[in-house]
Amino acid sequence: MRNDSSLDTPQGHATEAILFGLVPMGDPRTAAEALHELQLLTETADFVVAGCMVQHRRHADPHSYLGSGKLEELAEVVKLAHSTVVICDDSLTPNQGKAIEQAVGVPVIDRSELILQIFGMHARTPQAKFQVELAALQYEMPRLRRKWTHLERQRGGIGVRGGAGEKQIDVDRNLLKTRIAAINRELERIEEHKVREVQARPDLFTIALVGYTNAGKSSLMNRLTDAGVLAENRLFSTLDTRTRPWRLPGGRTVLLTDTVGFLRKLPHQLVASFHATLEEALHADLLLVLVDGSSPEAQEQLRTVDEVLETLGAQSLPRITVLNKLDLVADRANLTPLYQTDPKAVAVSVLTGDGMSDLFGAILGHLAEVEQRVELLLPHSAGALHGEIRAKATVLSEFYTEDGCLMTIQASPALLGRLMAGGARRAEPKPGNGGGA
Ligand SMILES: Nc1nc2c(ncn2[C@@H]2O[C@H](COP(=O)(O)OP(=O)(O)OP(=O)(O)O)[C@@H](O)[C@H]2O)c(=O)[nH]1
Ligand SMILES: [Mg+2]
Questions:
Q1: Where are the domains of the chain?
Q2: What CATH number labels 4-109?
Q3: Residues bordering ligand 2, an ion, CB closer than 5 Å
Q4: Which of 33, 153, 234, 261 could covalently link to 29 via disulfide, CB atoms 3.0 to 4.6 Å apart?
Q5: How far does the centroid of ligand 1 lie from the alpha carbon of residue 329, in Å?
Q6: Per-residue pLDDT averaged across 186-199, rounded?
Q7: Is 222 helix (H, G, I), strand (E, B) or coil?
Q8: Which CATH superfamily is domain 203-368 in?
Q9: CA dihedral defined by 399, 405, 406, 407, rounded to 10 degrees?
Q10: Residue 290 CA, ligand 1 centroid: distance in Å
Q11: pLDDT tens track for 304-334
């Protein structure tokens, strides 16, 4: 990754960046509209956006990403705006990066580097920090040659073959490999510990919040629990999976897990290293897939989420689609395409609380569908289980008889198994009741 200090401007002024990217032929959006997400990423990385530029073409130029005419235009804009960096909406090959830097005369940052930089800024836990470092090293590996070719040329050498650079590339590559192996060992250790932690968790129903970055996952987590998770209008505020108990209306407790947000064109080095972070979400019993319903890109964002879930093998987990930020939706008719994608989607505003009862209803409805409803007799000798039942299952009715507490509950098969093992019994059907189906 690029050294931060090379992008600093004198007197601590924010670095002004020109953004550029490609859009399909005939795309009617302005450059600023088409590069909106890149703008958010840029601002999240603490740069100031000085301008946006797009070229209409189907494929990137293999040598310089933009065509040569457009590259000259970019150089002009950079000069006029006194920008000190240009930022590309896509990942660039080492050669494309070099060609652009030569043409515009300032450093270029590509989408992968920008995202890696943000992840680096936001990583808090040892696991997140190791994962970011691993992704950054993997990103750097194929770029070593470019770095050293460049140096050799500057020194008037004859290219890298056989030169000092060639040896230095080998030294660097070996150093990177050693560090990558060490990080992988650390990550394995952390992951083993996490698996033990998850296994040791009480068998509570677990709901994972997943979705596009900035959709409002952490805000929902904060609203429902006292997690105090950082939620802000920046991309990738959350990098760590966090799990907290949530008392559902009615008193029963489930676990709620907040996760890292998804993004279009995420650097593949990061997808791989964050697999572990997301994996915890894959053990959930239910996914709440959040999307910013007010975003013009909501449908595309949902598609991205689907793709990521599929690569994680989580496409068949039960899910409820949550269309958030309803307060920003001027006309509910705008949500129609999203309802066409998922007719059972629930619209909410985490900010105002609008629609929350619909969301609770959808979750309770799902629980009623997947859990079993049974009548149990809890003999006095197994009275200790009473508290656990109230916490982990939905109690539909209960009354005390001389034999013990007669309860109608709704619970997961796993919990029911444990209750029976602990002394609870199926209640005898009452005479004349027909026994129920
Ligand atoms: N207007 C409005 N803003 C919201 C709503 N819910 C969340 N936000 C705002 O959206 C921004 C992002 O919220 P977060 O909760 O951090 O989003 P996230 O999905 O956790 O994002 P990452 O952790 O970056 O993936 C914050 O500025 C929130 O205040 C809502 O219902 N309405
Ligand atoms: Mg978050």
A1: 4-109, 122-198, 203-368, 371-426
A2: 3.40.50.11060
A3: 217-218, 237-238
A4: 33
A5: 15
A6: 81
A7: helix
A8: P-loop containing nucleotide triphosphate hydrolases (3.40.50.300)
A9: 80
A10: 10
A11: 889 888 888 888 899 999 999 999 999 999 9
State both tokens at 313: 């093998």
Query: Helix H segments across 45-163?
Result: 68-81, 94-104, 111-122, 126-140, 144-154
Ligand 1 atom closest to Cα of 209?
Answer: 19
Ligand nearest the Cα atom of residue 231: 1
Q: Which helix (H) or strand (E) holds 29?
A: none
Give the lowest-confidence range in 181-185, 197-201, 216-220, 239-243.
197-201
259 within ligand 1 shell (Cβ under 6 A): no
Q: Do domains 4-109 and 203-368 have the same CATH topology?
A: yes
- What is the value of pTM for the model shown? 0.79
Which 8-state DSSP code applies to residue 219? H
**Closest ligand to residue 260's CA:** 1
Fold classification of 371-426 (topology level)? Alpha-Beta Plaits (3.30.70)
- 141 ligand 1 Cβ < 6 A: no
Per-residue pLDDT tens digits for 376-434? 999 999 888 998 898 889 999 999 999 899 999 999 888 899 899 999 999 876 554 44
Give the Å distances, CA to CA, from 76 to 8, 18, 31, 71, 327: 21, 11, 17, 9, 42
* Ligand with the closest atom to the CA of 214: 1
Tokens standing for residue 429: 């059907």
141 touches 117 (CB < 8 A): no
Question: Which of 214, 241, 295, 301, when mutated, tests ligand 1's pocket best, judged by the most ligand atoms within 8 Å of its CB?
Answer: 214
pLDDT per residue over 20-49, tens digit each?
999 999 999 999 999 999 999 999 889 999
Among the listed residues 311, 259, 246, 310, the one whose alpha carbon sits nearest the alpha carbon of residue 288: 259
What is the DSSP code string of 157-209?
Answer: ---STTSHHHHHHHHHHHHHHHHHHHHHHHHHHHHHHHHHHHHTS----EEEE
